[in-house]
Predict the 3D structure of the following.
Amino acid sequence: MKKFVSMFLATLTIVAALTVSSAAYSEGVKTNSCGVTYVQTSSRSKYSVNELIVRSIVDKANTMIENMVERELSKRNPDIPGLIEKTNIIASNTIKIATMLGVEVKCEYKAYKYNGTVFYIDPLIVIRRSNVT
């Protein structure tokens, strides 16, 4: 499990690092009347790039969570507490990265049933831009 979590965090960290370079492409380089070159930033374009990246991360995290649930429930003796723990780690790390990028993501729990027992797993949804700039 440690290897899985570290691989997931490494992937998300790389995506977050690429965000900075992606945001730079959405900003325009201008030269003023004095010949000084500067970068004109647009919070709207930066946000749309961040939101697209977060949506991609959330989609991948949700796919990973769904696949984990399907695999675990197909086992003869599934480890439901372990499954919930693993999916919670994925969800919380994804939310942390989204917050760093200025986008709010929350869990919207989905009920699953196994042998008459109901348990909840937390797929993620992108809400809106947060106040982080």
Remarks:
- Confidence is low (pLDDT under 50) at residues 20-27, 31-43.
- The longest strand covers residues 124-129.
- Helices lie at 2-25, 43-73, 80-100.
- The chain is about 55% helix and 20% strand.
